[in-house]
Amino acid sequence: MLLRGEYATLFGWADELAADFVARNVDVVVADNWQHYNVAHDLTYVLALLATERAGSVLGREIMLVTYPVVPTALTHGAPSAVLAADVRLPDSAAAVKTAAIAQTPGVASESSDIDAAEGADAYLFETFHHALPLAEVLQTPRETPLYEVFGEQRVRAGIYTDVLRWSHLLRACEALAQASRTTARAA
């Protein structure tokens, strides 16, 4: 979708989220941090941000959006940092369930190893939540090459991918989402 500039599915997801937030009369939404680590996580951030803004406008009040880091800050290569909203220590039983779920999830072994190396043995005992950053701040050109580009380049060299998803692709998608959200808000 992003390589071809086809955003209709993203627009639909933003509409569905906003409508669901209104229907449920939500007060708080939790989403992935903007981290320059994985395009899907960064898109999730933007979708949640725009949907909470739109739903809040319909409801006539602010909906709080807090985010959590999907990977440790040490792995995010210059992504903007947000103000901490809450730091929660999980009970040992919850951390054990979390660790077991990670072990059973296909394809995350290398990411889990990276997290273990960056945060140590207590990596899964804590959850931190941050206040969402405004869209204009996260859409600033990264100071370093986003990790999804680095991973993409490695996969192209390995013959797994034919193209690399670049910052410019993500930026165009986010700008298109923001424009569609503004247009929808004006029409409402």
Structural description of this entry:
The chain is an alpha+beta fold and 188 residues long. The protein has one domain (8-90, 125-187). Helix content is 52%, strand content 12%. The protein contains seven helices and four strands. Strands 1-2-4-3 form a four-stranded mixed beta sheet, with helices on one face. α1 crosses α2 (39-59). The chain is globular and about 50 Å long.
Q: How big is the Rg?
A: 18 Å
Largest sheet: 4 strands, mixed
Quaternary = single chain
Overall spatial form: globular
| SS summary, helix count | 7
Residue stretches low in confidence (pLDDT < 50, at least 5 long) are: none
Order of helices and strands: HEHEEHHEHHH
Tell me what portion of residues adopts beta-strand conformation.
5-15%
Termini separation: 27 Å
Give the rounded overall mean pLDDT.
Answer: 90
